[in-house]
Structure formats: C-alpha cells, structure tokens
Amino acid sequence: MSSSSEVGRGRADSIKQIFGRARGVVIGVVHCPAFPGSPRYEGQPTEALLEAALADATAYARGGVDGLIIENHGDVPFAKPEDIGHETSAFMAVTADRIVRETGLPIGINVLANAAIPALAIAAASRAAFVRVNQWANAYVANEGLIEGAAARALRYRSQLRAEGIRVFADAHVKHGAHAIVADRSIEELVRDVEFFDADAIIATGQRTGDAASSDYLRQIRAATHLPLLVGSGCTEHNVGEILSIVDAVIVASSLKVGGVWWNAVDEEKVRQFMRAAR
C-alpha cells in the first residue's frame, strides 16, 4: 500500500491543465457584493450586483492575471454549509457565467463558509474549472462554529453531476479558526490528509485574510505534498517573488484593492504593478 505522501505523485498537474503554465500563476479574487438573503444586502437590483462583480473581474483581466476565483465574500457573517440558501447558488451562478463570458479567463468558485456542494453546482452551471474548499479533510473550529471536512460528500456529489473535470483546490491548516481538534497532529500530516482525500491542489494561508504566511511555513507544506501548492493570503508586489520561488501559484485580492481593503474595488494599476513583480 502506498503511503499518503505518495498519493499525489501521479496525479495530473491541475495548475498547468487549467492555466496553461505550471508555475508563476496569479489568480485574482472577485469578492461579490452581498447577495439577496444575506444580512448586508440592501435591496440593489440584480444588474447592479452583477456589474459590481464584473467591474472587478475586468480590472483583474486587463491587469493581466491568469484566472479568477468568485466568492460570496459580501455575505458576512458567513453561514455554515447546511444553512446557505438556494438563492446564493443562483446569484453566484449567474455572476460567474457573466464573468466567464466577459473575461474569457479560467475561474474557480468558493462559497463561504466551506459550502463545497453549492460550489460544485455553481461551477458546473458556469463552466468553472475548479472550486476552492477551505476545510476538505478533518475538522476545525471556525468563526461559524464547528466545520467538518467536506471531501466525502462533495466527491460523491461531483460524481453525480458527472463533473469530475472540476478540480478541487483545498486549504491545509486553513485560516480564520482554531485547530484544537487536530492539535495532536503535525501540519505535514494534515496536508497529507487533504492529498489523500483526492484534492487536486493545496492552498496555504496566513491566519486571516490579508495575512502573509512565512517562508518556513510554506516550505514545510511544500515538503509534505506532491500536489501543486498555492498561497491564498498576504501576497503583495513586494513579497510575490519570494513566495513564487517556493509555490506554484498565488491567490491575491486585498493588496490589489483601493486602499488595500478587501471590500473596496480592484485597482487596475495595482494589478499591473503586481503582475510585473510576479513575472
């Protein structure tokens, strides 16, 4: 029997398959405004919500990113997966489809918090290439409460949709929570669990949105997996070169927004400057 550290060795490189290059990939995050059904939604017409998300997507595209992740980041406070309404999936699917049509970029879907099954449904409807799932294996205590790994149910649902081509990008030691439940296991073991449960790529992050992960921490995760590795927080034009010397791709948002704040609009010139540094 193969050890868990060998499981990902023969798996296709999802980064290269999706983005056409194996290293140096930059993925921008479209933080959608609050959708109907969430506390911060203020009654805007559907078209206004779509235009806001599309404006950020096109700014990223003109700035030269390789792909995008669409997130319902305006739906604060985030609900647990079983409490997310069908309206969220509907609005996200329409938004994602519009972004694909307008930008032509590969996209991924992340439904917060940890809603892998809605994300897969949206991805299938909008021709997205991948989903991001923040807790794929094991469990942790998040802002939303106890969050359990989604792998078993999500992979069965993906099979039901005949959507095996949608890749899973999964966080290891995910941000915004406490890992007391698995504190007796090393980070390397947690990374191997994600790999063993058939994720296609691993995401490493800092402690919260905008926080950078240390180089030592990234190397620790890099050594534990054969899968592609991405950094999912804290990447700026000043540290992207060092980060991309360790990992294969970066997911970036806050540092490319007006004022460096995630809820503001994307600054196209900041995207261009970031891409020059990344290349």
From TrEMBL:
SUPFAM superfamilies in the record: Ribulose-phoshate binding barrel
Coiled coil: none
Source organism superkingdom: Bacteria
InterPro entries according to UniProt: Aldolase_TIM (IPR013785), BtpA (IPR005137), RibuloseP-bd_barrel (IPR011060)
PANTHER family: SGC REGION PROTEIN SGCQ-RELATED (PTHR21381:SF3), ZGC:162297 (PTHR21381)
NCBIfam families: thylakoid_BtpA
Entry similarity comment: Belongs to the BtpA family.
Protein name (database record): BtpA family membrane complex biogenesis protein
Native organism: Pararobbsia alpina
